[in-house]
Design brief:
Four copies of one chain form a homotetramer. Chain A is mainly α. Helix content of chain A is about 65%, strand content about 0%. Chain A has eleven helices and no strands. In chain A, helix 3 packs across helix 5 and helix 8 crosses helix 9.
Amino acid sequence: MNTKTTSKPSWKHRLHEIIYEADTPAGKLFDVVLLIAILASIVFVMLESVESIQKKHGDLLNIAEWIITILFSIEYVLRIISIKKPLKYVFSFYGVIDFLSTIPKYVSIFLVGSHNLAALRALRLLRVFRILKLARYIGESNRLLVALRASRAKIAVFLFFVVIICIILGTVMYMIEGSENGFTSIPRSVYWAIVTLTTVGYGDIAPGTPLGQLIASVIMILGYAIIAIPTGIVSAEMSRTKVHTNTQACPSCLKENHQDGADFCYHCGTKLNE
Amino acid sequence: MNTKTTSKPSWKHRLHEIIYEADTPAGKLFDVVLLIAILASIVFVMLESVESIQKKHGDLLNIAEWIITILFSIEYVLRIISIKKPLKYVFSFYGVIDFLSTIPKYVSIFLVGSHNLAALRALRLLRVFRILKLARYIGESNRLLVALRASRAKIAVFLFFVVIICIILGTVMYMIEGSENGFTSIPRSVYWAIVTLTTVGYGDIAPGTPLGQLIASVIMILGYAIIAIPTGIVSAEMSRTKVHTNTQACPSCLKENHQDGADFCYHCGTKLNE
Amino acid sequence: MNTKTTSKPSWKHRLHEIIYEADTPAGKLFDVVLLIAILASIVFVMLESVESIQKKHGDLLNIAEWIITILFSIEYVLRIISIKKPLKYVFSFYGVIDFLSTIPKYVSIFLVGSHNLAALRALRLLRVFRILKLARYIGESNRLLVALRASRAKIAVFLFFVVIICIILGTVMYMIEGSENGFTSIPRSVYWAIVTLTTVGYGDIAPGTPLGQLIASVIMILGYAIIAIPTGIVSAEMSRTKVHTNTQACPSCLKENHQDGADFCYHCGTKLNE
Amino acid sequence: MNTKTTSKPSWKHRLHEIIYEADTPAGKLFDVVLLIAILASIVFVMLESVESIQKKHGDLLNIAEWIITILFSIEYVLRIISIKKPLKYVFSFYGVIDFLSTIPKYVSIFLVGSHNLAALRALRLLRVFRILKLARYIGESNRLLVALRASRAKIAVFLFFVVIICIILGTVMYMIEGSENGFTSIPRSVYWAIVTLTTVGYGDIAPGTPLGQLIASVIMILGYAIIAIPTGIVSAEMSRTKVHTNTQACPSCLKENHQDGADFCYHCGTKLNE
């Protein structure tokens, strides 16, 4: 407030510092308050959906949600004002999430029920990594993402096969079991095949005929065996990402695979180039 | 059409180019149209099995399926005509799939219900890899297959043990629980044991006696522990396949599979080329 | 029969060859017949337990089982006669299994229902590895056993923790949910905790209160996360067993970790010692 | 008793030897008796919760529990007396467990039902490792803990993502399925999402609409694929812990964690001792 008297850029700069950074006490305070507000808003949306609580404290929850929505709106506007390239923020991952977290309550005036979309605010919790300066956690999550991205193609192929298998097995079960055992249509049977192959097994649809149970057994054992595949892919990928972190080659003996942070060749003792 | 006036081999050659290859614009167009037709045909078969949709749009779906079946028939005939060795195609993996994808609708004239087998068309989707020239995905899927083939014996032994364990545990549960808890026969109890060991757990059959629940607990923990085995097998296998990234062949003895960074042939000691 | 006229040891020797070995045509025939008899006997026991089949073909199945039991009895006696150290066979793994596979039908004369124990005959199927000379499969299964034995201690510790966690969580759920939601006693709640932690999830008992569902969610996520532990143990163990297969060290540069079957050092090209 | 006549420190010392150590015959006997008492007390608490047993043998079980509680109380007091720094024991892991194992029966005089907390005694079973001098098992369990601690951050990030995914998917399902299919509130829908993603699949709540089943299928396949992540993390971690088998320390710069087979320090280039 008292910075308003100074030049505008400085005022913007200070606002940017508070909102986007977490090094100053004011910035830290802002981030902690924001996190609490996000958590509270998620809890409010959840509680409102519980009928008994809605009946008792509906008005209170409604007011609380409006307050949080207005606070989020102010924060969103301030974020746009205080940044140099507002469009870049608006279309960034966090910008889109922030917008989607703010809008549902306004939309709910015209469209009943849409305020449940406020649960998207859960994505704002991802900020926790940035806010709490959990550099190590970000590093870990990046390494996870790298390993996942590297095994993306293999996992896509695998899931593609799983879906094709489920379509075929679902159709076979539809023909064997029929409507009387709950396999009323092919899409529903494919749904059952997915429920079974992934070892979820609700039991809302279960085979009743001996032949159907035999095929179900085969699907289950298949699912039990092929769960090994995505696991094997990711395991191998994560083991691999660790080995290839140091790309140096010894200038003398050309040995590679040096340890991270090595200054000298482990084999011949020559000084390694940076 | 206009190529018909030229010599026959050239006409065949052009047809082959369109159908079997995807480098020319015509070939690409053919492949994309084919993929859409396959997807549409699968959706039609699925929708037809849903009673409410069948009642409303049954005739429409029937006509759509006949159109696609006739198109597939023409494609099948063209594939046979345009290839040099028709029999090789007919008995190839894709040839069999193409035949099985086309035939159900014709059979359904004589045999009600058999048109559901058209869901086998889902296997035609595997063409997507070849069509979209997803060489990388094919490479990945090959590496998956190599790893699986290498661990085939171990996985077979593992599944053999799982089946034997399920037969014995199923029988024991049949004797303990009896008909009143749903364990009406040994095959049904074996089915239950498989449902439990694979952690699917439908709940259509569940132990009711304390002793039965104790044994069920043991089976579950067993299943929870031994799921590690196929995973461990595939993980180890996929880690191993990474060792064979060295594509050098010894200039002297032509041995391959040299270690990464090897300078000399492990077999004859000849210096390897870079 | 015609060998009876020769000296007794030779007669015994020939019987031993037929029963215990699979190199001669007679031995092979014996083994194949035995395997078929074992499979048939298991199918018979299973079918007999199905009420509808039992009513129709009960007498037939009873006779078939008696024939197989008598055949197994003869085989068992011949095995004892033809071997040099009968006691060693009787108390060996296969000896005990053979005895337990033969006895249930005799016991069932005095004790109704005990003939179901004949399902133990499934263990006789393990002979298939020895009979079909599936040396490679035996090798694989041995490597599996070695990896499992090596990780025995770790898996035991892990399962011990799982059981303790289930006892405590089961008790907590018993106090929260109570009898009205199916948690009628602590043992039953512990059973539920095991069903949940192992991700089996029958649904015969499911939490009804919000607090119970919250704790159940924690148990599930816990179970989802800790399934990684036995898998990690076995994976690491199986990867390890493969690395240490070549124990050679280069006599010149002392490099180790040579490829299997390497004759020359991959680093300096020196001939490796056998 | 007879040691009371000697000096007090010696009497305390002897008591300490019996209670805290397991090298002398008296110490061993004490530990075995303690283990049996712990196991018996857990069984008693469990049996008491079973209504039919409670009705028949309630008084007996009550007396048995009081005896064990008094024995545990005496043991707890003796442990405090015989140790040099009583407060260190009282606030140690085992000290807290011992206290919590003893107190529930006393509290149950005032607060009905609280004696079930005695199931916490299960944690006392962890003593089995120390008591039976299972050094190897402790070693294994330590390695497990090291691997888990090392992958703590990654697993936390993973579980954080899982929870956020479940909140969002649960909300979406609440809006699609609604109360008529059991999705009565957002918390309940999030509970369902966790049940599904972790492949537990009770079936107490199951999607009824086609769209809901489609989304459920996506969640299941997602859950089936991402179970690979914690497994991959732990596998990679456990494989890694094996890499640090080189126990050399550089004689010059004292750096450790050298590569297996390293001849020179990776940090300062000094020749390493064998």
